[in-house]
Design goal:
The structure is a single chain. The chain has helices at about 60-70, 100-110, 115-125, 130-140, 165-175, 180-185, 210, 250-265, 360-374, and strands spanning about 5-10, 30-35, 45, 75-80, 100, 190, 200-205, 215-225, 225-235, 240-245, 265-270, 280, 290-295, 300-305, 310-320, 330-335, 340-350. By secondary structure, the chain is an alpha+beta fold. Strands 1-15-16-17-13-12 form a 6-stranded antiparallel sheet, with no helix packed on it. Helix 2 runs antiparallel to helix 3 (about 115-125) and helix 3 (about 115-125) crosses helix 4.
Amino acid sequence: MKKHIAILLAIFCLVPFFAFSVAAAPSVSAKSAVLIEAESGRILYTKNSFCKLPMASTTKIMTALVAIESGDLDRKVKINDAAVGVEGSSIYMAKGEVLTLRQLLYALMLASANDAAAAIAYEVGDSIEVFAELMNQKAAELGLSSTHFTNPHGLHDENHYTTAYDLALIARAALENDVFREICSSKTKTLPMGDGKGTRYLTNHNKLLRYYKGAIGVKTGFTKVSGRCLVSAAERDGMRLIAVTLNAPDDWRDHTALLDFGFENYERLTVAECGKFSVSLPITGGNSSQVVAVNSERISVLLPKNHSEIEYKIEANRPIFAPIQKGKEMGIVRVLCEGKEIASSPLIAFDGVETNKTKLSFWERILSFRNKKE
């Protein structure tokens, strides 16, 4: 069994020493709310965020994600008769009208068109019910246990619900998709009219895109039962935040306060790019006395802005015998703050080390002799 040795490196201070401190969390009007940092998924603010509630048109985040993942967004879609005249927000599609799936996605996310949602469901799932099952399958894939869909648009149904936290995770996954991110961050879009003689002008209902610095989405929603619902996301200085409010009378102010709270109190730091952190480890029986191990991944951490010192701790495999192949895992580098691990990355051999057969140790010669006899 390999032994392990822990090497505590000299402290590398990124900022002056401060105790962790975060300003008081904002008060919000929402019945349920959450703020997460997207890369880590860490919750920065929560208020009843695991309470199951209706989600109205924020449903369409999942509708769009499932549709995008179905592929070929430029395929032509003949609008199903059952999608015409759906209750609520609409772009007033005509029977037999043809639009591309991509155009329907813009209508879905900017104009919050329920007829576009239904048209997408019939195209991708052949029916509302089958498409809802595709949405539920995606929710299960994301590990969500408190979300259930019965339709693609969010019109009220007692069995159609989510939580603020689950909705944040859905938005987190959707924003990883380049197409989704481009659509939900668009302020305006034009689509042809059904008769081909006019133009539809779509304006994104998400006002944060116009007045909040760094806003990139995501979706509004409202029914009389759900109240005002909103999912927002913004990026600043390499950090992406996602805020969700359900049943929020003052949702625009809520989201401004939540996002400000996150950006003012937290930061994402890149401790080391891939391969930039290195340590020389002694090796026995090689054509070199040392092997250089480097971090195999970019090391990035989320911390309160007034955080204390950062320490690095190396745990290396011991003893190390040649030969060593390039890329072989040699140990791990752990990143700590106030004694707590906040990140880690495997250490791998930067170059291979061959066996030096003319300088075998006593025990290696014994082992080599035994191997020859066997």
